[in-house]
Amino acid sequence: MSKRNICYMVSAIIFILLAIFMIALILAQTVFKPKHPILQTVSSTVKGVSTNVLPPFQVQLNFTLTLEMLLENPNVADFEYKTMENLVYYMDRLVGNLTLPSSTLPAKGSVILACPLLLQIDQFVANLGDIVQDILHGKIVIETKARMPGVITLLGIFKTRLDSISHCNLVLGFPSMVVLEQVCDLKTKL
């Protein structure tokens, strides 16, 4: 083999390696770049108002707020989320919560989960002046916070941790207990 042929072969190998590196870099910045998973409250309904009377003269009034949560994975890899928690607050006081078990969202997949939250009115009544004022106005404003931490694994090697947070303000009509207004905000932390 002549020096000229060796030089051509080395140049071809360097060119091929450079081309592979450039293609991998472009794919890493476009197709395989982690995208934010979506955690969104699609709808919310109130059902199952129940009362219990316990001795000595303690009355408990509970109702179920069902949130339909859209979980969407826009990535080309599966998104494995850990235990998701959904908390409900009234006047910055925790009045209900729900924890959903961990699962996996397939690549480019989505699912709608029904999240029934049992709300405890006795926690609402802790702020008696506020709840009475809200009842007189015919509207009860509650706040929901859902958090979904998870991991996206690309090619079985590269792992990216993501944390999606959904924050919603709901206005419930009283005494009908229907959702009059719903405003949600979505954040994702890489």
Task: Give a quick set of tags describing it.
190 residues, 2 domains, single chain, 3 helices, rod-shaped, Immunoglobulin-like, 56% strand, alpha+beta
Structure description:
By secondary structure, this protein is α+β, with helices and mostly antiparallel strands. It folds into two domains: 1-30; 34-189, Immunoglobulin-like. Helices cover 22% and strands 56% of the residues. It has three helices and ten strands; from the N terminus they run H-E-E-E-E-E-E-E-H-H-E-E-E. Strands 3, 4, 5, 6, 8, 9 and 10 form a seven-stranded antiparallel β-sheet that branches. A three-stranded antiparallel β-sheet has the order 1-2-7. The protein is rod-shaped, with a radius of gyration of 26 Å. The chain starts with a helix and ends with a strand. The mean pLDDT is 78. Pfam families: LEA_2. It is a single-pass membrane protein. Keywords: Membrane, Transmembrane, Transmembrane helix. It is found in: Membrane.
